[in-house]
Specification:
- The protein contains nine helices and 43 strands.
- The protein is mainly beta.
- The strands form eleven sheets. A five-stranded parallel sheet has the order 7-4-3-8-9, with helices on one face. Strands 21-20-23-18-26 form a five-stranded antiparallel sheet, with no helix packed on it.
- A hairpin with a 5-residue loop joins strand 33 and strand 34.
- The radius of gyration is 26 Å and the shape is globular.
Length: 639
Amino acid sequence: MLDIETFDNLRGGNVVYKALAHPLAAQMLAQLAQRLNVAGRVAIYDPDGIAGPLLALSPGLDVEGIYVHDSLAVGQLRGGHVTRALTELPQGPGGARIGSVLVAAFDAANAVARVNSLVSGVALASLDGVKLPSNRITNPKRYLDAVNFATNFVFFRDDGRLGTRLTTANYWAGYGAEAVKFFLTLYDAAGLVLAEWQEAAPGQAGGFVIDSGEIRARFNLPAFTGQLFLHAVGVAGHDVVKYALDTFSTDNGASLSCTHDANAWPSERFAGLPAPAVDERVVLWVQNSHAVPIPPGAVSLDRMGAESPVPLDVEVPAFATLAVDVASVLPGLHWPAQIEVRAGRHIVRPRYEVTRNERTRIAHVNVERGDLHADPGIKALSPALGRGFLLPFPVLPRQKFRTIVQPTPMALAEQNTPLRLDVFAQSGALAAQHYLGVLPRDHAVALDLDEVLGADELESGALAEGGHAELVYDFREGGDANGWLHALFRYEQRESGHVAESSFGAHIFNTLMTYKSEPQSYNGPPPGLTTRLFLKLGGSGRESFCVLIYPASAKWHDISSTKLQLFSAQGVMLAEHALRIACSGSVIVTPSRHFSPSQLRDAGEAGYVLIRDTTCRLFGFHGVDDHAGGFSFDHMFGF
């Protein structure tokens, strides 16, 4: 397990981790270690308790010992060393065993002065020596400000068969950012740098696209499969780089899929990886997020609930990408079995690729939380919170699509999940309910909604034109709940066999009363009762669409007051269209139905539609349709 602290839902992200793990900082850390080691062994003064992650991400330091000034911290194990009192710090060449002292802190002038009188004849250094240069800093007054590390990784490739296209917007402009710039580094499969460059984001809230084919041509690159590292500078309001990523055929093939952003925080485990069906191949893309190699055996796969992990006995170099055929690690395991990825905090939310009949689809697994346990308060929620936690997902028009849902355990302590499925027509009318039971951790349940709604009502039933369903907790036969309810949603085009899949987690939606951090807000404290969702446009002969769902844990406004706002690549709003969605209802939105061809041409391929509502919180899934049987589908992001 990599000894780092990354993210938890109470404190948010650990900025120190991002400051140490940034690729440029990692280079400077390696250089610092080399210089200090030349002088002799290194004593570390650890005033802020970060020696563990420092040594995990910079293992080249020849450490003599770790010293602390907090008497209650003496004797702790940090980075493989037992901490000692600062007063025991060796004196230097006159009678000591050290050649230098490293103060493990940023903005460390006071801490350096604190130890300066304790040593003589040795070099003193601090982590100020590995700060990013000023042109990569958003807030120079406070280095460990989260906005200084608005970073993320992207699964990026252009291999002669498949290409990738990242789409986002300068949503920071809406929070006052004036000049956002991206610093980008592209790594190949071996973790070597293929290209580094900078790009300015639009001055207003304009759309922004990075296309793998254009990048390959610009830098005259060979075919590649790797990862793109993004660092946004000059941001405000959000310290996360959010994006949608399309994967599409470049060789006239039929593959088409999209995924959400990668989530910049490494996790101990991930869940929601489907085992392959008998006619499928599933590849897990293991992408090292750090400048230190992943040792053999540090990552393993396990059937969910089996507690028999199988290690990957191969080293993954720094920032490298490894394709792992799931069947080679867990032979004989088939859908609907689920797989747990024990990642040891080495990787951010990884992608997986499913190939069937020469069509591929890309999706991602989700963070399996180690800090969550059953919450008895969920069983006794206030009536004002209605049905409480909901996990909404679209039911696509049934004549054309099958819709399949598979609940996925997403916490280490989760041993059972009591569930019911509520199905709603677009009008908000309840169309069906189905009790799934108390599902054990190792369940292999994948529910085809044809079984719930009837396969003989594809053309005339309440959901013939689509609708949505919601997984909710149901304690009629007992069971536990932790509020981190997740599921995989699989959609199959009946005629072509093309499949898209996505996954997400539950929230409490559209209630004035709150429970802990719910209903979540895009920005600020709960309750979250507004919407700001991003819908990219199609391009290249593909048409974008989305399904907007108005989920309500309790009764809220009967009808939404939703606006579709068309923005150009320069961030200019070109047109607006009003939309009304029934409470507990849904609607399929295709921009070409609401905006004219000339308006869409003016928006351009980097333009987008902002779904805005100040009266309720909507949830959405987006994708593109190639009108040849191929489509993509994944949950939308908001800001």
